[in-house]
């Protein structure tokens, strides 16, 4: 069991200092760096007794979250909402206050802001603007190693291949792809989707690649519906299964199939991506690649906190694994 002595030894301070920090003693004169170091160590070694104590009103360090979508769009896309939620929960545990910006990059941030967590896809021009803030930057859901910044992403490549392997094992010799095309919010760059690349590589390797089975639209329910409805109306042969790059696309496709009397999974199977709560609420419930979005946010917050306490010059890429969750849209 972790003790105050363990924390004191790791933090290089006295047991008394540790106790007073964890008890939020407002009369204690200690730097914010030391306070956050003690809180971080306590969390990492499993010391939790202090978490039942109410927060003091002492001025705290702040962390800014910059969400690439608008607040309205975030309400329609629970994927990015859950990443932000994970960040905020972890920031609260580490005793930071939060600043939130939706689809907006501020021109400056106060000295009390120790870093910025950037959620989503940003163009090179936007990243340059973020760099001018002169704060530690950590990106979530985009690979920014080439730009010199630490980042957290999902293991898209292996997750797509695991879904396609499962469908192939179920006897699906033709597998289609439903995917959206995204741009950065300043509309200067088209975003390359690793799921499309992974799909192509797998299908080419297995000798089942057919570009006619790739349907591209937006990451919305309406787009998924229109893509499949148009495909069915054209009279073209449908594949044995579809892999949808989001739950929203899969839900729209599911409706189009049902309206045309095509049974899922008897006639065609579907696996979606993200596994939000929506995937469980439709009929039939969707098999989906489970993405640990809250954990992505928590991990990014931990990286930012450690960069603040002990800066590293070498940027890192952290990939979180996924899990294929099987439900009734597959056999």
Automatic annotation (TrEMBL):
InterPro entries: HTH_LacI (IPR000843), LacI/GalR-like_sensor (IPR046335), Lambda_DNA-bd_dom_sf (IPR010982), Peripla_BP_I (IPR028082)
CDD domains in the cross-refs: HTH_LacI, PBP1_GalR
Annotated ranges, domain HTH lacI-type: 2-58
Entry keyword set: DNA-binding, Transcription, Transcription regulation
Protein name per Swiss-Prot or TrEMBL: Transcriptional regulator, LacI family
GO molecular function annotations of the record: DNA-binding transcription factor activity; transcription cis-regulatory region binding
Domain of life: Bacteria
Pfam families (alphabetical): LacI, Peripla_BP_3
Species in which this protein is naturally found: Streptococcus vestibularis F0396
């Amino acid at each position: 069991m972790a003790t105050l002595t363990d924390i004191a030894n790791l933090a290089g301070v006295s047991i008394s200092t540790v106790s007073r920090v964890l008890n939020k003693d407002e009369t204690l004169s200690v730097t914010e760096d030391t306070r956050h170091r003690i809180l971080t160590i306590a969390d990492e070694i499993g010391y939790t007794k202090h978490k039942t104590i109410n927060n003091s009103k002492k001025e705290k360090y702040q962390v800014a979250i910059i969400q690439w979508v608008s607040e309205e769009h975030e309400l329609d896309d629970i994927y990015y909402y859950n990443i932000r939620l994970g960040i905020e929960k972890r920031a609260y545990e580490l005793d930071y206050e939060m600043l939130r910006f939706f689809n907006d990059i501020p021109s400056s941030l106060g000295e009390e802001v120790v870093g910025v967590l950037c959620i989503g896809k940003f163009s090179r021009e936007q990243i340059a603007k973020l760099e001018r803030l002169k704060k530690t930057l950590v990106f979530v859901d985009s690979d920014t190693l080439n730009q010199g910044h630490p980042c957290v992403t999902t293991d898209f490549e292996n997750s797509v291949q695991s879904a396609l392997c499962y469908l192939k094992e179920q006897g699906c010799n033709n597998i289609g792809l439903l995917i959206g095309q995204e741009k950065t919010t300043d509309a200067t760059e088209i975003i390359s989707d690793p799921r499309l690349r992974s799909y192509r590589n797998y299908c080419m390797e297995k000798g089942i690649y057919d570009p006619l089975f790739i349907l591209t639209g937006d990451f919305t329910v309406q787009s998924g519906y229109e893509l499949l409805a148009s495909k069915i109306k054209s009279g073209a042969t449908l594949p044995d299964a579809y892999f949808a790059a989001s739950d929203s696309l899969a839900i729209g496709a599911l409706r189009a199939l049902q309206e045309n009397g095509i049974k899922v999974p008897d006639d065609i199977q579907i696996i979606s991506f993200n596994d939000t709560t929506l995937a469980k609420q439709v009929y039939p419930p969707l098999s989906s690649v489970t993405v640990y979005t809250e954990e992505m946010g928590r991990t990014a917050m931990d990286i930012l906190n450690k960069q603040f306490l002990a800066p590293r010059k070498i940027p890192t890429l952290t990939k979180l694994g996924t899990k294929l969750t099987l439900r009734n849209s597959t056999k």
